[in-house]
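Task card 7
Instruction: Convert sequence to structure tokens.
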Amino acid sequence: MKYIRIISRVLLGLVFIFSGFVKGIDPMGWAIKFSEYLEVFHLSWLASFAIAFSIVLSTAEFLIGVALLVGLRMRVTAWVALLFMSFFLVLTLYIAIKNPVTDCGCFGDALVITNWQTFYKNVILIGLAIFIFYSRNLYKPYAGVLAEWGLVALFAAIGSGTFIYCYNHLPIMDFRPFNIGTHIQSKMVMPLDAQPDQYESTLIYEKNGVRKEFTINNFPDSTWKWKETKSRLVKKGYSPPIHGFSISTKADEDITQIVLKDTSYSFVFVAQDASKVLPEQWQEMAEYYHFAQEYGQKFYVLTSTPPGTADHIKISHNLAFDFCFTDETALKTMIRANPGLVLLKDGIVLGMWHYHDFPKPSYFKGNILSTILTDYSKSIEWKRIFILSLGFVIVLVALMGIKRR
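Output:
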């Protein structure tokens, strides 16, 4: 029984840590999913707090996981974990039945599972949570009360600090389909052997005030009058990682392939909501525009803002460049910043920058590819060091607890 208690605590803790961390390092992505939930439950008025909720919930989930894994304040942690899992068990059951969103987002973009798979996963996890709850008095303390609460505060600070950093910059681990190194076109294509979504159509006909459902294999006679057709998803098929992505001009000309097949470097600024871009950020883009003009590079600003609003912004900020228009969801997926900069060549994502990290245009003088690859390598290195160090600290603290007990 002792080892079952330990295994239950460790397994549930690891799932909580993974779930909280992968959502927390992409707070904008989790906020987008959170906003979908708010809309489903008619709470859209809370959407302005989505980012704050995203960071707080991710930190709480991460912290519960660490507390379970290490064995901190187990009586309190067992209560919190059980309440947390009970709430999400009910929520995911509702989502699985009603299907208001395509996926729950419980593991962010790192691991996408169906709504029913999410519910079944939570059934298993709540079993562990119930067992831990009823065994909570049998877990030996890690250390004194002050020492344990001190560790809770430390990991809360580490988690929230990391997630806030990712919000103000970009995710330190990127699971999105537009991540660096992506060849966009290849992720937009449906493989020849892939199966598409399968739908079942139901035809509604009416006769003498009575409505009746028919299938495409069972048509009524001519005395019945068609009223509507309903389609139901029978089997989910393959969906390309990147879908719904297109670029059009104000004149409604589709230039998607022109941009993606361009062999020169293209500076693509993403301003999903152009009305929220600050004046100084428009001026930074203007500097890039003149730089691109001078050095023969391409320059685009993609937005989902209505053309009329975009024209007003162009005039009010005295901008020399035009706007291109792309789907809002595609832009939110492309980069977690408003505005953000994406560097493309041959349809390949070579680099991306949050508006807090825009380099000066002069950064792109000389051998652009060499400069970007060198800096990207350094960036990846410190992120790996940070993640490994965080994992090492958690494991070390957990092992120290085993020794203490």
